[in-house]
Amino acid sequence: MFNIDEIYSVTHFVRLCKNSIEKHIPQSFIQGEISNLSKPSSGHWYFSLKDENSQIRCAFFRLNQRKIQFTPENGMSVIIRGVTTLYPQRGDFQLIVQQMEPAGVGNLQLAFDQLKNKLRMEGLFDSENKKEIPEYPEKIGVISSSTGSVIRDIIEVLKSRYPLSEILLYDTIVQGENAHHKIIKALKAADDQKICDVLILARGGGSLEDLWAFNEEELARAIFDCSTPIISSIGHETDTTIADFVADLRAPTPSAAAVSATPDVDAILYNAAKLKKYLLESIKQSVESNKYSLALLRQRIIDPSQQLLLNAQKLDDLELRLIRTNKRIIDENKRKLKLLISQLQNYSENFIKLQKNQLSNRASVLSLLSPLNTLSRGYTITQNKKGEIVTSHNQVNSEELIITQFHDGKVTSKVVNKEDN
């Protein structure tokens, strides 16, 4: 039989285990690989930390995440500092994470690499998105601290190199917690004013932690969104920040940034002198060439009186040519007209002769066919008093008058007697 005093409820037993674990297992540093990472909307992170043989559940609450700069991912090897406990609701053994760093690389370095890869994939570093630095800026804005040596170096270089430009300082802190917010505010103020031809974003050297404000994603996107060209010069020549990758041009030092932003006034004066000399030589050559051309033109110019005589002679020649041409045309037309008249005469004579022949032939035919020609051979034509031609003796009666047509006249007679043949 069980001793009733030795029987625990589940809740009492879990609480006993929890108190024992938290009391006897100290705060620990553990290295392992992240798996089953979950990030609910509460902001807390839950995952398992495992090695080849074992794993343990972990909870990384939002308030403990404030100092973490990188983004944990499944498969990432990390070192965590945490306290051991039991989650009573499930009876799960777990670690409450208080600190996390990537194994083998620093926290900030990993965050830098992750953000760099992210922004590169989005195209923020692409050369086609870079704005051109103006060749002769009238106003140069400098975004930096007014108390550092950086601004003094930049002003010294700009004054000696290109004193024609105006320098505007947009003062900001460049280091410390939330420094990037101050830098963004100064950057937007300079860009919104639309008075600077180029902006220089600069600070001196320092550790990765000191320069971290220039590795913040929010600042990188603010630089990318600026309409004014930006030259970055963060830290020493060996230092590289995210801001350097996004800016339109990176200079290794603040002094080099001032050089990149301006032309050299001495070089400008030297080139101007060379250009002046070249222009003078060109003008001299052009004048000599024009003098020679003018001399040639003078030789080709004819005296007006001589030109008038030449024109008069040409006019006479044209008049004679016109007279000869008209005479030739008239003679040619006369010859053609004479030929046409001759042809017409020959044609008329032949036509009349032909017509006479045709008329004679037709008269002969008509003569042969004429009734009078028939009558001349002894034939007559008899008509009754009505003028009808009588072709039979039966058409007339006794005592009727008839008219007989001879070839040379007519005879009227009376029918006395009719007989049949």
From TrEMBL:
It comes from the Bacteria. Pfam families: Exonuc_VII_L (PF02601), tRNA_anti_2 (PF13742). Residues 8-101 form the OB-fold nucleic acid binding domain. It catalyses: Exonucleolytic cleavage in either 5'- to 3'- or 3'- to 5'-direction to yield nucleoside 5'-phosphates. It is found in: Cytoplasm. One of its GO terms (molecular function) is nucleic acid binding. GO terms for cellular component: cytoplasm; exodeoxyribonuclease VII complex. Signal peptide: none annotated. Keywords: Coiled coil, Cytoplasm, Exonuclease, Hydrolase, Nuclease. Its EC number is 3.1.11.6. Residues 124-413 form the Exonuclease VII large subunit C-terminal domain. Residues 315-357 form a coiled coil. GO terms for biological process: DNA catabolic process. Bidirectionally degrades single-stranded DNA into large acid-insoluble oligonucleotides, which are then degraded further into small acid-soluble oligonucleotides. HAMAP family: Exonuc_7_L. Belongs to the XseA family. Heterooligomer composed of large and small subunits. This is Exodeoxyribonuclease 7 large subunit. It comes from Candidatus Pseudothioglobus singularis PS1. The gene is xseA.
